[in-house]
Amino acid sequence: MLELTDHNYQSVPSNLREEHIAIEWFEAGRSLIKRNTSADTPTQLSRRFAKYLQDGQIVYQNQELFVRIVIRPCVCMVLRTHDAVVIGCFCFDVGNRHLPVFSVDDNAFAVAYDARLYEALSSKFKGLISLEQAKLIPVKALHQF
């Protein structure tokens, strides 16, 4: 079993084999993840240096391989608009359910799919809400100041 920590290697020689550990968006803040890599190598990843694991982060490297974190895309409810008032209402409605809102593109905001919330949001924001596959990246979550 490979014992990994959340190092962030910046440069990797091109001759190394790449393996990845796929995680869900809500696992990025976990302090311990036990998972097999894409090549079935058992790993135990301890998060020690940062608040969240990042998509594409290289957490391990030796003479043969490197291991990269991949955050899986999930079904999301996405609001696309340039209207700040609509964005504010969307964030308020989602925030009342204590769900994180993520910025996914310019003027596009997403939240993980929830059937009841989707019905409520799609009726309130007619034509502005769609279901899409998206990566919810922790550093792109909107935070209260």
TrEMBL record:
Name of the molecule in the record: Urease accessory protein UreE
Protein's organism: Sphingobacterium corticis
Source organism, top-level taxon: Bacteria
Lineage: Bacteria, Pseudomonadati, Bacteroidota, Sphingobacteriia, Sphingobacteriales
